[in-house]
Structure formats: structure tokens, C-alpha cells
Specification:
DUF4461 domain-containing protein; single chain; 2 helices; 61 residues; mainly alpha; 0% strand
Length: 61
């Protein structure tokens, strides 16, 4: 079954700028999804914040 995309070996290597753009878009979408989840589940978000704060307090350098 032929794919619409070329096989991995045939495509040219992506540039650093393309990789950074793709990563920035991914991180923006991730943050947006996290904000949405925090809005629709405030109790879980608060518990996660408290767990994170506890982890940060007990972390040893």
C-alpha cells in the first residue's frame, strides 16, 4: 500500500530552523492543552500544583 509521504530515507534532513519552529509549535500546543485541562479540572490542577511544589521543596541539589 503506497503512502502519500515519501519513505524516511528519501526526505532531505530538516534544518535547525524547521526543527525549532516545530518544537515551538508543539510546546505552545502543549501549554494550551494544559491550560484547558486546568480550567476544566480545577481540583486536579490544584493537586498537581501542590505535588509539584512538594517535589521542588524536597529536591536535593
Amino acid at each position: 500500500m503506497p503512502d502519500s509521504e515519501s519513505p524516511k530515507g528519501a526526505e532531505p534532513p530538516e534544518t535547525d530552523a524547521e526543527r525549532r519552529r516545530r518544537r515551538a509549535r508543539f510546546l505552545r500546543e502543549l501549554a494550551e492543552a494544559r491550560e484547558l485541562r486546568d480550567r476544566v479540572q480545577p481540583r486536579r490542577a490544584k493537586a498537581a500544583r501542590l505535588r509539584h511544589a512538594m517535589r521542588m521543596r524536597t529536591f536535593r541539589w
